[in-house]
Write a structure and sequence with these properties.
Blueprint lengths: L1 H16 L4 E3 L2 E4 L1 H10 L3 E5 L3 H6 L6 E2 L3 H11 L4 E5 L4 H14 L3 E4 L2 H7 L7
Length: about 130
């Protein structure tokens, strides 16, 4: 738990220093470049796609785990634990924020959400895999 707190503090201090993120209650909203940086540089990062399975199959962020229901999302967090940095995304950003709030309510852990979702990620020509 201590390692997770230290990792999260370091990541968020670096991001806050740049004044590049917004906060929605307990969910840190990261722009696509920040989201990618955290997912690649933080060994504790877990990318979770909260869209439907059919959308996931059409394309998703590399390494993402599908959690198309709250039950699946809770199973993932139960199996991986609260020592991870969870990065959620959806199509537009709203569903991932809602999922983040649900996770905070149940587990009391903060999560990150991709700003404006996968559509914005794609607009920026960032990589998507099938």
């Amino acid at each position: 738990m201590k390692y997770l707190k230290i990792t999260l503090v370091v990541v968020f201090v670096l991001i806050a220093k740049q004044n590049l993120f917004a906060q929605t209650d307990t969910v840190q909203v990261l722009n696509p470049k920040q989201f990618l940086r955290v997912s690649k540089l933080n060994p504790q990062a877990v990318v979770i796609d909260v869209r439907l399975k059919k959308d996931f199959k059409k394309g998703h962020i590399e390494g993402a785990i599908l959690a198309d229901t709250s039950e699946k999302l809770y199973q993932i967090i139960d199996s991986l634990g609260d020592r991870k940095t969870y990065l959620f995304y959806c199509k537009y950003g709203e569903r991932s924020i809602a999922a983040g709030k649900m996770v905070f309510k149940k587990y009391k852990i903060n999560v990150c959400s991709l700003e404006d979702g996968l559509d914005y990620w794609k607009e920026l020509k960032m990589a998507v895999v099938k």
